[in-house]
């Protein structure tokens, strides 16, 4: 009986911790997204509206949640990224510098396990998420459709 009580105690504690971590992640992602979107709103109110609706649609129509990993970028930041990887867009070409592109990760809970869709996931995984289909409604250009660069996290206003 003592052992059973101990086991239940450990399981309950683990469950509460798991719940707290989940809520913590949710709050962190919401604050992050709000901050990234408001930076975009400062330079381009139209993109702000489009990306806000795009994200709302994803979360309403699929079982995925969105984390914006990159929104508005300074020219300096874009220059650094170009140095790291020559396939990144030049400062003049990057839509991130103009506030007209976002990079997103997707995540969802599968029982106790959290699944992520990130840059290294395949085109097929991203297409199956339903997010690419939703992006066409807003006429967004998807980085997964680039011929010579795999960038499925990237969505930009044409
Ligand atoms: Zn991007």
Q: How would you describe this protein?
A:
With 158 residues, this protein is an alpha+beta fold. The protein has one domain (2-157): 2-Layer Sandwich (Muramoyl-pentapeptide Carboxypeptidase, domain 2), CATH 3.30.1380. Helices cover 52% and strands 18% of the residues. It is built from five helices and five strands. It has helices at residues 2-43, 45-61, 75-84, 123-128, 131-137, and strands at 65-70, 101-110, 113-117, 140-142, 154-157. Strands 1, 2, 3, 4 and 5 form a five-stranded antiparallel beta sheet that branches. α1 runs antiparallel to α2 (45-61). The relative contact order is 0.13. The model has no long low-confidence stretch (mean pLDDT 93). Zinc ion (ZN) binds next to β2.
What are the main properties of this structure?
158 residues; binds zinc ion; 5 helices; Muramoyl-pentapeptide Carboxypeptidase, domain 2; five-stranded antiparallel sheet; 5 strands; elongated; single chain; alpha+beta; 18% strand
Just give the CATH class. Alpha Beta
Query: Could you tell me the number of beta strands?
Result: 5
Amino-to-carboxy terminus distance:
65 Å
Classify the secondary structure makeup into a structural class: alpha+beta
Instruction: Tally the structural domains.
Output: 1
Are there runs of 5+ residues with pLDDT below 50, and where?
A: none
Whole-number average pLDDT?
A: 93
Q: Rg from C-alpha positions?
A: 19 Å
Summed up, the helix count is: 5
Percent strand: 15-25%
């Amino acid at each position: 009986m003592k052992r059973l009580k101990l086991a239940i105690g450990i399981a309950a504690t683990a469950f509460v911790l798991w719940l707290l971590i989940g809520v913590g992640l949710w709050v962190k992602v919401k604050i992050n997204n709000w901050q990234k979107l408001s930076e975009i709103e400062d330079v381009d109110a139209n993109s702000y509206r489009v990306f806000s609706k795009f994200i709302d649609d994803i979360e309403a129509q699929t079982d995925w949640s969105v984390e914006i990993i990159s929104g508005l970028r300074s020219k300096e930041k874009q220059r650094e990224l170009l140095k790291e990887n020559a396939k990144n867009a030049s400062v003049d070409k990057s839509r991130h510098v103009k506030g007209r592109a976002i990079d997103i990760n997707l995540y969802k809970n599968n029982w106790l396990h959290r699944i992520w869709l990130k840059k290294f996931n395949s085109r097929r995984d991203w297409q199956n998420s339903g997010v690419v289909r939703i992006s066409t409604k807003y006429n967004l250009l998807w980085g997964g459709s680039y011929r010579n660069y795999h960038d499925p996290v990237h969505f930009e206003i044409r």
